[in-house]
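Batch job 17 of 40 flagged for manual review because the log was empty.
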Amino acid sequence: MFRLLNLELQKLLLNRTSKVLIFVSFILPFFVILLSSIKINVFGFFTLELGELGVFNFPIIWHLTTFFASQFKFFFAIVVVSMIGNEYSNKTIKQNLIDGLSKKEFILSKFYAIAFFSLISTVLIGLISFCIGMYYSSYDQIDIIFRETNFLLAYFVKLLGFFSLCLFFGMLVKRSAFALAFLFILFISEWIIFGLITWQFDHHVATKIQNFFPLQSMYNLIEQPFQRVAMSKFPEKAELTYDYLVHWYEIAIVLGWTALFVFLSFKLLKKRDL
C-alpha cells in the first residue's frame, strides 16, 4: 500500500499544477476560521459577532465546520480528474504497466492517494474545529466536547465517496474537463429522476429513493446546520425540528458507492486496450 501511495504522491508533487491545486485544497478549509471572526453591523446600532452568539459551542461546532469545509471539495476533485487525464495524455499509464505495475495496482494507487488526502483534510478540519470550539465554546466537559465527532467520520467518508466518483468519471472519459462536466450532468440527472418518481408516486417515496442516489447520499451525510442553529435559539418552534444526525446506514450507502466506483474504474481499465 505504502509503495503505491508513494508512487502516486511523487507523480502529483512533480506536477506544478497538481501541487498548486493540492495546496489550495488544504488552505481553503482554513477559511472556516473566518466564520468565527465575522461581525455584522446592524444599521449602525450594534454589531453581531457570530463567535459570541453560541454557534461555535461544542458539540455543534463539529457539524458547522465539516459542512462548510465540504463545500471546498471541488478543488481537489480537479486534482483527481487531472491525475487521470495526465496519465492518458502523457502516456504514463502505459509506461507504468510496461514497468510492471498491474492494472489493479494502478487503480489502487489512485484510491490510496484519494484516501490519504481525504484523511489529511479530515485531521485538519478536526484540529480547526477543536481550536475554534475551545476558544468560543461555553462548554468544557469532555463528553460534550467530543459528543458529535462522528461528523468528522462523515466528512471523511463524504470526501472518499466524492473523489472516488471523480476517479470513475476520469477513467470513463479520460479528459479532465469532460469528467467535471459529467458531475454536473449526474447532478441534473438525479433531480430529473427524482421529479419523475415524484410524478409517478409521491414525494415521500421519491425522497426515500433519492437518498440512495450517489450525490444525494453524499450530501445526506452532513445536513445543512442553519436550521439546527435556529433550533438552538428558538427551541419552542417545533416546525424547525429536523434530523441532522449522522446515521450508520447513510455512511454504509456512500461506502457502497465508493466501492462500486473503484471497482468500475478497475473494470474500465482492464477492458481498455492501451
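Reviewer: the log was empty due to a logging misconfiguration, but the result itself is present. The two ends are 24 Å apart (CA to CA). Unflagging and moving on to job 18.
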